[in-house]
Amino acid sequence: MTRAFISALGAMRANQDWMDVIGNNLANSNTLGYKSARALFSDQFSATLRGAEAPSSVSGGRNPMQVGMGTLLSTIDRNFNQGALSVTGRTFDLALSGQGFFAVEGPDQTQYTRVGTFSLDSGSNMVDLRTGLRVLGANGSPMTLDLDSVFAPKATAAVSMSGNLPSEVMGPLAEELSSSSPFTSGVPAVHAATAAGPFAVPVGETWSFELTMNGGSPQEVAVTSTTGTITGQDVVDAINGLDHVSAALNGGLIEMTSDVKGTKSSIKVTPGEAGKDLAGLTGLGTSLVLGSETPATGATDLNALTSNTKAYGVGDTVEFSGSDADGSALAASFVYGVDGTTLDDLAAFLDGQFAGASVSFNPTAQQLELTSDTTGEANLSMVLLDGENQVGGTDWTSHVMTLTINGTGPDKVTTSAEVFDNAGNGHQLSFNYERQEDGTWDLSVDLPASEGTVLSGGVTGIVFNPDGSILSPPSGSINVQFAGQPAQTVSMDFGGPGSFAGLTQFGGGSSVVVSDQDGYGAGELSSMQVHNDGSIEGYYNNGQTAVLGQFGVATFANELGLEVVGESMWGETPNSGSRVFGGGSLGVAGEVVGGALEESNVDTAEQFVRLIQAQRGFQSNARVVTVQDEMMSEANNML
Hints:
Elements: H1 2-27, E1 37-43, E2 46-50, E3 65-68, E4 71-78, E5 85-87, E6 93-97, E7 102-105, E8 110-113, E9 116-120, E10 126-128, E11 134-135, E12 158-164, E13 174-179, E14 184-192, E15 199-200, E16 206-213, E17 218-224, E18 229-230, H2 232-240, E19 245-250, E20 253-261, E21 266-270, H3 278-282, E22 289-290, E23 292-295, E24 308-310, E25 317-323, E26 329-335, H4 343-351, E27 357-362, E28 367-375, E29 381-386, E30 393-394, E31 401-405, E32 412-420, E33 426-435, E34 441-446, E35 452-462, E36 476-482, E37 488-493, E38 503-504, E39 513-517, E40 525-530, E41 535-540, E42 545-550, E43 553-555, E44 563-566, E45 569-571, E46 580-582, E47 591-594, E48 596-598, H5 604-638
Parallel strand pairs: 12-37, 12-38
Antiparallel strand pairs: 1-4, 2-3, 5-48, 6-9, 6-47, 7-8, 7-11, 9-10, 12-39, 13-28, 13-31, 14-20, 14-23, 15-18, 16-17, 16-21, 19-20, 21-22, 24-30, 25-26, 25-29, 27-28, 32-33, 33-34, 34-35, 35-36, 36-37, 40-41, 41-42, 43-46, 44-45
Helix pairs in contact: 1-5
């Protein structure tokens, strides 16, 4: 009867051990880097009541009959699954994503941990904040960082250019003035009657019609009969008393002509009172009559221009005043019929007045054009007016000379960059691109006199393909001597042939910059960052970086063979295997994650389930002890 006691007692001990494991897991549910443990049970030996028997010729075989002697705790192992990472943002808070351990120099042996709460002490030694133990680097030695050394300067030896030089040519350009509206040759509107006089009109009656000229206000034409008839001349005289029209008899027929030429010229007759309509009497139609015009040519006479208000007579003048390209004042008189009569004659006369510019008539644009002989800014001007007290005239205000192309020098694009001498002093260089008349670009370099001298160098003939990529980037360099320093050569890179990575020539504005230069001044350490391989990269205030050290990551063939030594540390054992030491992300080693810590991998919900299971196991075996005790009491009472 004692077997039940023995089995129950062993099971109660095993479940108590399991309870201890669960309790420890729950106690460390918030311990950084903690790896949960689990208890594994196995049954104990069994008492054999009957052995197994083989079958015979007269009976079958029989299985063994055994009674088990309970359970025991066979082992407690660890769950090394990855714990969640908690971001802290602190530079030397480190976690491992994957296998491996950080290593610290313990008092007796090297210890290993998943908790990377590291910092620098006063001696720039990397230590574990919790224990003060020194952290080992990837070479297996304690880590010490050099935080005080200055990053040595480097003189600039090369610069790289990138960005856009505009393809639109804005200069060099010569200044140009053009007449504000095109010259046209015009024919006035002409309206002729179809009936010849005399016309019978009762004595004392007045016959009339309205005449509208060039879209203006209607004017009345009225004739009163004094003899019982009116003549064509009577009507002509009445018309000639009106504005903007002239009339005459042509073969006995009345013919009216507008004083305006071209499409702005029009004649409209409106019939008079019924029974007294002079228009119908004289055969003047009521349809709108328009003038016509055509583009002027150089051979067009000034009197044929639509802007000519009255025909010039021989001796009439067109007065010219203006200024030459250098600003000197000019004045002259073009005499009609003496100096010429056509637009080409006028242009040739004006051209002879300018020493630094030329005048011509452009038949395509139908404009007078005044163009400076040289590129760049100019002070050109030209004004035309009619002379006083003369017969003819032209509305020169409709052809005033206006600036159509502003005189400019070559297109220039300037950028600047800081370069460094041998001592690490910065100097500002200006890079000046200038478009040449053949469309190529030249580059020159300037340096303030107080900073030093550009001894020689520059680049000529920078050429681009039609698609804007550079065609044949010339190799260029400059030789410069900064104050107090020896001369140094700086090479310039504009990109590869056909590439868009360096200089380009597209539409749009300029955006040229010095995209890179290889020099820098002396620098001091400003910040640090830990990368995935455990390397510590230092950032200096001169824009440079350097690797200051590397955290070591240890891996083991059997990490379950490690033993806990306290303080979230582990130690080697004969069954863990020897460590393999190096940086993060090397071999099976996980990545080092900077600014984060690994949390415990204890699953609290799972532990509570296991807690209930352990409680039920303990309770059920305690019940076996109680029942067995009652059975023994009953047996004793029978004696």
